[in-house]
Each structure stands twice: as C-alpha cells, then as structure tokens.
Amino acid sequence: MYVHLPWCVRKCPYCDFNSHELRGAAPFAAYVDALLEDLDHDLPLVAGRTVQTVFFGGGTPSLCPPEQVARFLEGLARRMALAPDVEVTLEANPGAVERGRFQEFAAAGVNRVSLGAQSFQPGLLQAIGRIHDADETLVAIGELGAAGIDNFNIDLMYGLPGQSRADAAADLRQALQLAPPHLSVYQLTLEPGTPFFRRPPQLPDEDACWDMEQEAAELLETAGYQRYEVSAWARPESACRHNLNYWNFGDYLGLGAGAHGKLTLADGRILRRRRRRRPAKWLEGEKLEGEEWPDADTLAFEFMLNALRLVGGFSLALFEERTGLAAAYVLGPLEQAREQALMEEHAPGQWRATELGFRFLNDLQGCFLPAAGG
C-alpha cells in the first residue's frame, strides 16, 4: 500500500513528484479522514488480501503528526489484515523543522525510515535547494537509533551541480560511517516541469557521472552491500520489500492525492487507478481521477520497465503470473536484446540485463516498446 502525503516545507528545484509547499498548517486530520474514505472506496477490490507493506511517501511525510499516522494505521488494521512482519516505511527529511518525533512514529507503527540526505556537503546541498545541513542528518540518524528504528535507508545523489568525483566519493564514505542497512544512490536527472529543467544548472558530463557510479559501486561492494536494483544497495535481508514489489510488477493500492495503484482482479484483468493530484480537490469529495485497463502490449512493456531494473532480472514464469500473458509474447524482443549483448538467459527461463544492458538500461527497455515488436 502506498500512501501519499503531499506537503513539504519547500519544493526542491529538481523534484517532479506531486508535492506542494505548505502555506500555513496542513489539514492532516482531515486528510487522514479522507485517506480512510479513499481506502473504503477500494476495499471491495482487495477483499481477503493481506497488507505486506505500507509506504508513506510525499512530499515530506515526516511533517505529518505521528498521532495521525497512528490513526491511519489503526484504521487500516480494522479494515484489512496486516502481515505480522508488515514493513511500514516513512520518508523523512533530516531538517530540524521535520525531525524530532521518530520515537512517536515508531510507537505509531513505523518500522522503517527513508532519510533524504542527498549530500553531506553544504555547497552541494545549497545547489540543489535542500534546507538541511549535514549535522542535522547525523542527529536524525542518532534519533532513529534512540527510537529503535534500525531499519533505515539513506538517499544520496550524484551528478550534482559543481560536484567532482572526489565529492561524490566523500559523501558515500560519510554515509557508510553511519552503517545504514540500505542505501539509495542515484544520479540527478532534469525532469520536465521542474525549475532545473527550465533553467538547467551546469552538471557533470556523462563520463564523469559514470566514473562516480563506478567508484560508488566499488566502495559499496567493499563495504559489504549488495546491489539489487539500479540505484538500490542493501546489506543481506535489508532490501526494501515495498519497492521490490513494484519492480516485480506486484499489486499495490495507492491512496492520497495523486497516488497511483495497480490491482489484479479475480478475473485476471489488471486495473490501474489514479487519484486527483491537487490536495484541495482530492479532499473535496471525489477521489478518483481516472482508471485504465492496460492492453497486452502495455502490460508487457510495463513489466519490463520495472523488472529490468533488478540486478537478478526475472523469470518467464513471473512474467506470465504478473501479466496474464504467455511467455512467447516477449521471446522475440528478448532474443533481439540477447543478440545485442544487452540480455542474457543465465538459467533456463531466467533473464537479466548484462553489464552492458544495465549501463544502457533505457535502450534495453526500449526493445520492449510496442512499436519495437513487443
């Protein structure tokens, strides 16, 4: 289950998520009421299912009062079965405005936190519009430990304006000193509709970014982390279960302003639903903006768009299970990608990107576009 909490203190210039700067106090109590109403609307579609993971994303979900997070989780537990080991993740920013309540969040049911550090260097943080500093990140990590939340992720970015290879390595070394079970290390990209896209900053070139990525991989492997997805590294047993479900094309219910969901119905059809983006409009009443029933070409492409991000790849059996399509539907593009040295069948029915395919992932994913014969 994905729960979108759309407000933040200040929107970062690279962010293309459905987030909105606070103008006064956010109506979190009314928002949680509406989340439970939103859930009630979709309950018939998920009857009998067990919630394995809950992910509070945003925006900055750590702005939400812990008692409201608790109220939502209690309401969820009255409506659906929760797995005994349910993973409940809260995204948080380390800034002082949004920090200081991890013990209360833990009491509410949060057992995993994803901390948006991005960098530990003042100049780089300023260049990307972040409102916290490195010391606040260190304090936040200490507070997580005091709250008993030992399952946490640190987000780091590379390819930042003015960043050198040495800068990127220094950020990663500092993050490793904090011994996070999970690290997300991803390149800054200029997304349409953002201030950075309209007025692009001077970024390191692609060769420099490749060098940063390669050095990061060496440092992380040496430190005992395993890469399991393009930008995700974890210690054994610490991969993010919620995101693994996305990448394996699993079902998820999306609640809140702008949230998307994907559900496989009892008759095998797959339904995608999206909520209204503007928080005020979503709160007013009608939550649903639209729904789609993806055709076979779209399902095959969407599966590959996700599964090819995984280092371990996927099985043809999983493709059949998650899409309802025969494996033959994608054998042609798979063979073409293998001829281009982008894919390999490393065991019978088990496919994954090669090192070359992983480096040129967009090109590999493009092999499965409907126009490409998928």
Describe what you observe in this structure.
With 374 residues, the protein is an alpha/beta fold. Helix content is 39%, strand content 23%. The chain has helices at 28-42, 66-79, 102-108, 122-127, 134-146, 165-177, 195-198, 206-222, 241-247, 279-284, 296-307, 316-323, 328-339, 355-359, 361-366, and strands at residues 2-5, 7-8, 20-21, 50-58, 81-92, 112-118, 152-158, 182-187, 226-229, 232-234, 254-255, 260-264, 270-275, 288-292, 314-315, 343-347, 350-353. The strands form four sheets. Strands 9-10-8-7-6-5-4-1-11 form a nine-stranded mixed β-sheet. The protein has a three-stranded antiparallel β-sheet with strand order 12-13-14, with no helix packed on it. Strands 15-17-16 form a three-stranded antiparallel β-sheet. Helix 2 (66-79) runs parallel beside helix 3. The mean pLDDT is 93.
Characteristics of this structure?
39% helix; three-stranded antiparallel sheet; 374 residues; alpha/beta; nine-stranded mixed sheet
Give a topology summary.
Blueprint: E1 2-5, E2 7-8, E3 20-21, H1 28-42, E4 50-58, H2 66-79, E5 81-92, H3 102-108, E6 112-118, H4 122-127, H5 134-146, E7 152-158, H6 165-177, E8 182-187, H7 195-198, H8 206-222, E9 226-229, E10 232-234, H9 241-247, E11 254-255, E12 260-264, E13 270-275, H10 279-284, E14 288-292, H11 296-307, E15 314-315, H12 316-323, H13 328-339, E16 343-347, E17 350-353, H14 355-359, H15 361-366
Parallel strand pairs: 1-4, 1-11, 2-3, 4-5, 5-6, 6-7, 7-8
Antiparallel strand pairs: 8-10, 9-10, 12-13, 13-14, 15-17, 16-17
Helix pairs in contact: 1-2, 2-3, 6-8
